Amino acid sequence: MKVIICGAGQVGWQIARQLSGEANDVAIVDNNPALVRRATDTLEVQGVIGFASYPDVLEAAGAHDADMVIAATFSDEVNMVTCQVAHSLFNVTRKIARLRNQSYLQARYSDLFRTEHVPIDVIINPEHEVSMAALRRIGAPSTFDVQDFLDGRVRLAGIVLAEDCPVLNTALRELTELFSTLRAIVVGVRRHGRLFAPEPQDQLFDGDQVYVISDTEDLPRTLEIFGKPLARQERVVVIGAGNVGLTVARALEERPERIRVRAIERDRARAELAADALERTIVLNGDGMDSAILSEAGVERADAVLAVTDDDKINLLASVRAKAMGCKLAIALINDPSLAPLMEHLGIDAYINPRATTVSSILRHVRHGRVRSIYTVGDGEAEVIEAQVLSTSSLAGRTIASADFPEGALVGAVLKGEVLVRPRGSTLLEAGDVLVIFVLKNDVPKVERLLQVAVEYF
Question: How is domain 130-225 classified at the architecture level of CATH?
């Protein structure tokens, strides 16, 4: 597949790294020579310097025979024009654009992105994706990572095991026998910084970070087994009332269970806008790092604090202070991935990386064939792929044990029609089944070949 990625920032670079590593023909375009040089020096990609919306620049990147354009520059308008040029002049089949400005995304303007107007096939809004990630984290407070698959019927959860975990030093095979009705499987373990797909005889130890794929209904029981009982969230403090904070507060207001939400916003005008837009949320105008404001928001009694300002340092320090004042759970929005290792030392329970969230969202729409969803684990260390078994696939008609899955891949769930099945070695895979598979980075191409994703194109 030939892909043109417009924008060589962190998002563009990460997408280029993923796709070029899977033997795709990738060109990356940016008007910053240093960013293009970084991409060409570290990745097997073609680099083109220039504005992505210029026809001659797209032509130099190979738009005449490109299968897809991903417009992820810092400008919404450049991304929109790039898709228009790719469609009108080069007839590019698939066009994905990252759009931040909420004005473009209002439902009443949805006709704007029809083929006859501004032809964009998929719009990725980072703030919406980050808001959804934040809500998932609040819904599963004892996890450090969470993502839904199979239309919400299955959930991937990352859990840090503590010394009080009831199943430490227990082989995974024994766990399967002890909890035979539990629809959950440990698919990945990170130990001493190394992520691997575990074998049935492997044991779990204090400090392990485990990734579990669970039936959503069984997730509370799964968390309890691993020593992380699911606590109900009744009081939430949101620091930052920008687009992300506002979206989260509004979603919490709409939940059937009554959640008391208080928001803190330093900018007075933005605080007033948030107060007008929200019905039950109390909005305080002040500094989220100020102990007096945090106390006024009731952070001492809060079940969770969510720091989502546009400043990483404020999010970190506000989260630390909230925890010190007695808040049970702190989640911080962190743009700079180099700050992630500080989370554990600072006592922050979870963080959200907008770039990683955006990359995962874009990659869901890039894959060939029957791959329906994809989620990047960690720093691109692994992927969780939701895909349908094709009748032409070598998987069809074989059991999971006899299928040629690589060592770094584990099937975490199988959907047969409307029935969700806990996968076993004896589970027969049939055409039409939908699988959720955890795959280490190096084994992704092998799994994609098994699924024969190149046979069809969307």
Answer: 2-Layer Sandwich (3.30)
